[in-house]
From TrEMBL:
Gene3D superfamilies: Nucleoside Triphosphate Pyrophosphohydrolase. InterPro entries: NUDIX_hydrolase-like_dom_sf, NUDIX_hydrolase_dom. Pfam families: NUDIX (PF00293). This is ADP-ribose pyrophosphatase YjhB, NUDIX family. It comes from Algoriphagus alkaliphilus. Residues 43-176 form the Nudix hydrolase domain. PROSITE patterns: NUDIX.
Length: 183
């Protein structure tokens, strides 16, 4: 899926979450900017994430992000790749070592626009994160990458205790619980 496919998905994307729907127009606008897929776009750029759950939908895989010091879903920069599903899959494989990842649906699972704090040599900027739902084998060994301090399969019931208050992760957790009903 290229930027035209993403633009079409964004036009069709509906969410009952006000905080998520508030920035759909910003995501659509960014698809028109060829630099929007590159981290050189200093105001903000696309990233892609994999919300990974086990097949029985009782656990999610989270990483303790080395630079941010927070538990998050796996993902990263598009680095020029307009196919954000490919980006999410590549980042998840690199950051976890998993080979059993399966895309549940090629449509957008979640969107989040969030600020990345300033660091040496990188000014404060926005990540326009497009998230996709993946399933994986919870028994497959994990390999921690340089980007993580730790990786863990967290039970849905323990996510809040592990991450504290992170509305975008809580939203994805809620969506996963709702989608389980539909399966």
């Amino acid at each position: 899926m290229d930027r035209l496919g993403l633009r079409q998905q964004l036009q069709n994307y509906r969410t009952p979450y006000e905080e998520e729907s508030a920035f759909i127009a910003d995501f659509s606008e960014l698809t028109h900017d060829p630099l929007g897929y590159k981290r050189e776009q200093l105001e903000g750029h696309f990233t892609a994430s994999a919300w990974i759950v086990n097949k029985s939908r009782t656990h999610t895989l989270l990483t303790l992000h080395r630079k941010l010091g927070r538990w998050l879903q796996l993902g990263g920069h598009a680095d020029g790749n307009e196919n954000l599903i490919e980006v999410a899959l590549k980042e998840a494989e690199e950051e976890s070592g998993l080979t059993s990842l399966e895309l549940v649906d090629s449509t957008i699972f979640d969107l989040d626009k969030h600020i990345i704090p300033e660091r040496p040599h990188v000014k404060e900027h926005f990540h326009f994160d497009v998230r996709y739902l993946f399933e994986a084998d919870i028994n497959e060994p994990l390999i921690i990458s340089d980007e993580s301090v730790s990786l863990a399969w967290i039970t849905f019931d323990s996510v809040v205790d592990m991450i504290g208050y992170n509305p975008s992760i809580l939203r994805m957790l809620e969506k996963t619980s709702k989608s389980e009903i539909l399966l």
